């Protein structure tokens, strides 16, 4: 695998204990899998704080994105998604083997492998609380034995590849490679109500180069069209979580027409996205474009800290004061403003001040390392990275306010307020439940169309009555160019908008969910 270049930790103290009920209905080359969710509650949220001593895997992280490989390389085969799935809300059932052995899985468009616990998993407690695949009981089992491991945060599941038939609804996929997990460290998988993961991403990010189940469904002629679609039910009442349709689209699940955008980089279902608006006003950062991923395995919306901070400020979310950010504004705020007014290229300002170096397109950390640092085995990279990032955020915020002809005092006060709204290190931001009606809408521009999210759609409520808490549906995720800036549009967005994954045309489509 390539060298690990970045670790993004996004944490939400929510744990979803999911019910295993499921149904499937065939319909002219399409198969429907019912998705079930369970309501959030405070008890499970608090329980999510528990860490495992083995590997320090936590139940709390929503998802951890580790993109691996050389970002400058054209070959993305080394780029894999590394995640914690405890907060993925929607799942269904599949069968493996003959006769079929049933497993509850998360249908995840952000990964590409199928894995379930193995009967040969002897030393991980989690395996004893989930269904386990028994190869000796399947007449269609074929031995492979190649070792495999998928990293999740600071732990991993590991095992080996096997081959067998996989049943999805009434469809049977023959000769499917999948991973038998023989090690599932930590409490993460012990507490989970799902057994494994059913990846729906591209083969380019498949561990071991295994052909994804979806590819084989298409190649074996099991579906009418090379399309699958998600309808996620975000309504509180009722237990029906939604539906995933393989081979087509159910017109009862959406209103109007879908807006389609091309997949720009195979691996994830990645596409280009335009500006992000808060209360109808531009946030500036993505006005010239950002990348985005439609990801059914992530609960929240993750995006660049620069924008998430502006959103947190607008909705009154409580974050942690960034000392680096406030120091930049205090000492260099007026200088940045003067450089902007003098029409200095914004992307060069932080390098001119000395916090970043200019690589020809943007500022990057100077990464100064002193002899003393080298002697004591420390690096100043983290400090310089933080200052460079804080400077670049301040430039974007100030530039955005200058366009509105605000005064120097107004701009500096505003940027200082944004510094105070920087997301907390664990990614969690809390909002006042009684203030939903006064919060602004947040909108995303995709394919030239604006997709709106109302406060009640991007705020997650945990608990009831006096003990209820409201969590911002936005969390920070910073991925540098050329892979980023990157947005992860998870279930908060996909619940509002019916999502079509068109493998035949290599497009992703969104329409208002019905």
UniProtKB/TrEMBL annotation:
PROSITE patterns: ASP_PROTEASE (PS00141), PEPTIDASE_A1 (PS51767), SAP_B (PS50015). This is Aspartic protease isoform 2. It comes from Theobroma cacao. Keywords: Aspartyl protease, Disulfide bond, Glycoprotein, Hydrolase, Protease, Signal, Vacuole, Zymogen. It comes from the Eukaryota. Belongs to the peptidase A1 family. Disulfide bonds join 121-127. The active site is at residues 108, 295. One of its GO terms (biological process) is proteolysis. Residues 1-24 form the signal peptide. CDD domains: phytepsin. InterPro entries: Aspartic_peptidase_A1, Aspartic_peptidase_AS, PEPTIDASE_A1, Peptidase_aspartic_dom_sf, Phytepsin, SapB_1, SapB_2, Saposin-like.
